[in-house]
Amino acid sequence: MNKIWLILKREYLTNLKKPTFLFSAFGTPVLVIAVFVLAIAIATSGDTMDDLKQVGTIDNAGVLDAEVRSADYPDLFVAYESEEAARAALDAETLDAYVVIPESYIATGQVQLYSYDGVPSDLEDVIDDLLIANLSTQVNTDIPTARLIDPANATIRLADSGRELTPESLPALILMPIIFVVIFMIAMQISGTFVMSGLVEEKTNRLIEVLVTTVTPMQLLTGKIIGLGLLGLTQISIWIGMIIVVIALGQDIPLLSGLVIPVDMLVYSVIYFILGYFLIASLLSVVAVIVNSEAESRQYAAIVSLVFVIPVYLTAVFLNDANGPIPTVLSIFPFTSPTSMIMRVGFVSVPLWQMGLSIALLLLTTLFFMWASAKIFRWGLLMYGKKPSLRELIAVIQGNPYKYSQPQTETPTKKEVRAS
Amino acid sequence: MGTNSAIVVNHVSKSYGDFRAVDDLSFEVFRGQIFAMLGPNGAGKSTTIRMILDIIKPDTGTITILGGALNDQTKDRLGYLPEERGLYRNVKVVEMLAYLGTLKGLSNRDAQKRAMTLLEELDLAERAKSKVSELSKGNQQKVQFAATMLHEPDVLILDEPTTGLDPVNTLVIKDLIVRMKERGSAVIMSTHQMWQVEEMADRLVMINKGKQALYGTVDEVRQQYALHAIIVKGEGDWARLPGVIRVEENARTGTFLYMDKATTSNQILAAIAADSRMTIDRFELAVPSLNDIFIQVAGEHLPEDYVQQTQEKELVYE
């Protein structure tokens, strides 16, 4: 136990100081936040309604009443007799834009907006409001204009999950699961890759021979996987900490104001992280002992991580219907479930049986691969040279390692034969 | 089986599929002795070492280390230097040594202290804070040797300990090995450098095709292969000496005088001394070097060019 602790401690501390880790732990979130801030800055740097002085109206349909003005911008709109007059005013920069309401408007609802520069996107809403206000005067009703403009302020509550779906929390609901998946995925991958590259280093420089005569292969593997798993959790804590800080500081930014960290999602994410990480780490430790070089191991690692990442590429499908067949299957299938389930939990409420089945299958798969990889690991640690085939690996798992091959325990080199 | 024995290998066999890597091998290693393990490549030395280290299990037979099967406690009393060297590259020398020391059960402080002492002895004290990757290959090898003996193991298993070292560093390492022996550790040393075996080893085993080919003290083994002959250099009609049955000239080594069974080398020496017509510059027993014995035993398994080369120069006696 003490030896596992020593290995765990060393793996955690050495990798904590690695540039790769420091960059991904601190650099990535800083970079993401920077991009985010930049995007918000660009989005809000365009023209606003306050930049508009006047907008001309040419009412060929006879729907505008000079008395009924825009509620928010009563002085914005100025009526013009003809398009030519409005155009002259636009050229003279008296107008920033003008809107033509054609005769066919009542039937089609089409209006044309003219301007030289772009107009703020809100202008369309303001024109809408103006038209509604004017049209409503012609409708014989006591219902206030405000209700016609904005008939319902809905608060949608998702059954079971209790998450509140308001216009303000909508970005948070979509964004949070994706942020979580990315955070947990990256942490899983980085820690898993550290397990692999550490083992590859020890194997290629033969330090492994010294280590396994000091500790058992299982102590070595356990210490590494737990140590680096804790490193992954450290990374996740740093990121979530940063998110909390950003949310706290950014309450005034509309896009951020609705953001909260859903506790249930956090709990599920940690469960799936632990199971998924053990699965990835077992698979990659097998890769580490059967390959002969760092470069080769990276190719296999890429294949392994691709499987785990598949659901991220299908985010659109999840957004569309997170309880649909594809998301459901992906969230139950063990290799894709860690990422899929986090997204589903964020988007919708997941039936309890699916959650149970998903966790159970992932747990069983993880336990199986840990057991199998332990067998291959012990056998493959000191194998050099030829890479074993799948058939050979299965023979090793079955406890019959030399069914198809014999290990090359010595590398004959001529020079060593020459006695002095 | 003496009470002094550190390792007992008892009728051990190991097969990989159809290939018999080690075949009914037995030997014993004593404390306070250097035990050499010889044999051509592929003879089964590494397999044997790995079985002693419990990295692989023997099919049949037993191995006893420090009184029992290898366990967590005895593992801490073991030091192993593998044939192919390697260390963590991006770690400071002293940190690397301390880590391996703590894995062997030393406290962190103890491990650091011992690491510094050893590095001083190895003339590497000023590199203690350097990264391993910044050291020369020879220095890395010295660091690895330090890692092997940092915890003063009772059993030291060294696979080719001095390969690749310059003569000065070879001496430094040799002294440390001898010191471990004098401290009472059992040292197993696998090597191809016969002069080292003759110089350092107390006992040896030679393995060929997985089987024990030679076993005993270095002198015993050499005597086993000794010719009943004397090599002389000098002037005289050697054939006339009583008891000499055959005379063979060898341009390089000298003249071989083969004796009959009843004659001893002392009698020949006395006869030469008594004969005023004979002068000698050199007189020695025709005991083969370990190198010759090695080649003789393992010759058929050596690479072709090497065999040819040695056949051309024929068996050379000291």
- Write the CATH fold name of the largest domain in chain B: Rossmann fold
Average pLDDT of chain A works out at: 80
How many DSSP H or I helices of chain A? 17
Number of strands of chain B: 13
- What characterizes the major β-sheet of chain B? 6 strands, mixed
CATH-derived architecture of the largest domain in chain B: 3-Layer(aba) Sandwich
Which descriptors apply to this entry?
heterodimer; A: 420 residues; mainly alpha; D-Maltodextrin-Binding Protein, domain 2; 2 domains; two-stranded antiparallel sheet; 17 helices; 6 strands; 63% helix; elongated; B: 318 residues; alpha/beta; Rossmann fold; Alpha-Beta Plaits; 6-stranded mixed beta sheet; 4-stranded antiparallel beta sheet; 34% helix; disordered C terminus
Question: How does this structure look, described?
Answer:
The complex is a heterodimer of chains A (420) and B (318). Chain A has helices spanning 2-16, 19-44, 83-91, 105-108, 122-137, 145-149, 170-204, 207-212, 217-249, 254-257, 263-290, 294-313, 315-320, 325-332, 337-347, 352-380, 390-397, and strands at residues 55-59, 77-79, 97-101, 112-115, 156-157, 164-165. Chain A has 420 residues and is mainly alpha-helical. Chain A folds into 2 domains: 2-33 and 163-382, no CATH class; 49-149, Periplasmic binding protein-like II (D-Maltodextrin-Binding Protein, domain 2). In chain A, the strands form 2 sheets. In chain A, strands 2-1-3-4 form a 4-stranded mixed beta sheet, with helices on one face. Chain A has a two-stranded antiparallel sheet with strand order 5-6. The longest helix of chain A has 35 residues, at 170-204. The two termini of chain A are 46 Å apart. Helix content of chain B is 34%, strand content 28%. The longest helix of chain B is centred in the middle third of the chain and has 16 residues, at 167-182. Chain B folds into 2 domains: 5-222, P-loop containing nucleotide triphosphate hydrolases (Rossmann fold, 3-Layer(aba) Sandwich), CATH 3.40.50; 227-285, Alpha-Beta Plaits, CATH 3.30.70. The model of chain B is unreliable at 301-318 (pLDDT under 50). Chain B contains 11 helices and 13 strands. Chain B has a 6-stranded mixed beta sheet, sandwiched between helices. A 4-stranded antiparallel beta sheet of chain B has the order 11-12-10-13, covered by helices on one side.
